[in-house]
Amino acid sequence: MEGDENKKRPADVSLPRTFTADLRGRQSVRATFKLTEGCIDAISIVAAHLGIKQKSLFDHLVEDAGNLRSIAREIQNIKLSRQGRIQKTFVISRKSLTSLESVSKNYNAPRDALVEFSVQRLLPIIAREREQHEKRKEMFGKITDHFKEGKSLLYKLRNVLGVEDPVCQKLETVMAVYENAYANIEVFVERSMIIENFDPDTFKEMFSIPED
Questions:
Q1: pTM score of the predicted model
Q2: Where is 211: in which H helix or E strand?
Q3: Which DSSP category does 193 fall into?
Q4: 79-80 and 85-93 as β-strands: parallel, antiparallel, unpaired?
Q5: Which residues contact 170 (CB under 8 A, 6 or more apart)?
Q6: What is the three-class DSSP state of 203?
Q7: What residues have CB less than 8 Å from 47, skipping those under 6 apart?
Q8: CA-closest candidate to residue 125, choices 33, 204, 47, 189
Q9: How many Å apart are CA 2 and CA 112, to the nearest integer?
Q10: Beta-carbon neighbour count of residue 25 at 10 Å?
Q11: What DSSP element (H or E) covers 79?
């Protein structure tokens, strides 16, 4: 019986190699790129507005190997200009970095250019989010007025009914939740204001084609 129990121990279970390789591919690594300011801003804006990590954004952009190879064929043998580029380190998955480096090597396409062209796919999202941001700001003004009215009403209830009154206590609870939600909305709107200064025209690939 003891031998049978030992056979069932979890330690004896081996994981498939494909599963192990997938886990390794998800490991986080640091990668440094030299990108235009517009590209860096675009990454920050989309991550902030969609509430996702930049690592997840990178994974999404390069997980489509076919699209990455298509981009590489367009920019094959292009030489990037160093002017106007900023060195920036990102945390990305090992799998994403390996994919970028592999395509870059196979097609002789600069890795930084692959990132720039991939991030360009985010421009329509940024355009939609800019419109949504303006609507949010307008509605946040109305939320602010409503929140102030609620606080004013609670103040009146305290004076008229007393803080121990059940109705007053229930509104206290409601306003405590409201205050927390209001603070979170305010932080989100303020953090999203980065999109207001984003100029798509500054998001251009700076490259030069070497002479034959």
A1: 0.68
A2: none
A3: G
A4: unpaired
A5: none
A6: coil
A7: 53, 54, 57
A8: 47
A9: 59
A10: 15
A11: strand 79-80
Closest of 54, 60, 48, 49 to residue 31, by C-alpha: 54
- Token pair 């909305």: residue: 185
Identity of the residue numbered 184: N
- What is the structure's pLDDT at 133? 93
Q: Which two tokens stand for residue 144?
A: 């602010």
Closest C-alpha among 51, 204, 31, 205 to residue 125 = 51
Compute CA distances 120 → 74, 152, 156, 193, whole Å.
Answer: 14, 48, 54, 20
Closest by Cα among 200, 198, 36, 27 to 110: 36
Q: For tokens 């994919």, what's the residue?
A: 99
* 151-165: pLDDT as tens digits: 999 999 999 999 999
Q: Which neighbouring-strand residues pair with 86?
A: 35
Q: What are phi and psi of 60, to 5 degrees?
A: -65, -40
Tens-digit pLDDT profile for residues 54-63: 888 888 887 7
Q: Which residues contact 78 (CB under 8 A, 6 or more apart)?
A: 109, 110, 113, 207, 208, 209
Structure tokens at 8: 């069932």
How far is 138 from 12, CA to CA, in rounded Å?
60
Q: Please tell me the total number of residues recorded for the chain in this structure.
A: 212
